[in-house]
Amino acid sequence: MFSNNILIVDFPDHLYGQFRHFANLIEFNLISTNANNALSTKSNAENGTTIMVHYLENPLQDIGCLSAELFKSDLHIAFCPALNVELEVIFISSGFHGAISVDDAIAQQIQSIKKVHDGDISFHPKAVSKYILQRKRIPSSGNRAKILAVTTKKEQQVLSLILHGLTNEEIAKELSISVNTVKMHVQNIYKKTKIKNRGQLFAFAAS
Which residues belong to any copy of the HTH luxR-type domain (predicted)? Predict the structure, then answer.
């Protein structure tokens, strides 16, 4: 048994084998469940990181059926027949940390899962930019000011690039620092704001 889990939610049988294969490749336990039992299934799983991958055949309808309780913890990836920028913006707004299309290459699907596991989000940059621009039109409650009040100048630079959708590697290149230094700044931001991951950081900074 591995230390981390992929919880596949509402998956059709023909996709189970594919996920079983690459869960083994990245050394994750694979657990199958449905939306109604996801929380109890997760609580019975082994300790470690749990990523919930939700199969959404009709995303706009299916999202409305998901319990808000599910998104209070863990990491969530949407898995659906097709993706576009508008749909990815909706996923970001709904609390997902990444989105995968059925048609994506297996290597790309694995990369998305690894990014989410490492604390990044996995969406198309255009979707992230559109989400941020949309949120800028909504008056802020001051959460972004709260973040600025407790962070250093360098952490604020890292935060700004995170909110523009850059990965740790891209931030390191942009600021001419090592990836490990970026990770240190990111962890400091999380600690100071009591936030656990990028998805929560996006939601907090935009609210």
Answer: 144-207
